[in-house]
Sequence to fold (50 residues):
Amino acid sequence: MSKIKCSVLECEYNRNVMCQAPMIQVNHNSVRRSKESGETQCDTFRPKDL
Ligand code: SF4
Fold:
């Protein structure tokens, strides 16, 4: 998989600002068509406390 830099440190897949998940799913963020990065979201996120 491509290297993915991610600043969401509270995700259980984050190690040293890099994503360690075997794959990620990115979806629209409350819109039908995204026009900017803020209108996308990582659905693979899981909080570390789970
Ligand atoms: S799963 Fe998503 S939120 Fe979590 S570290 Fe990877 S890219 Fe970031």
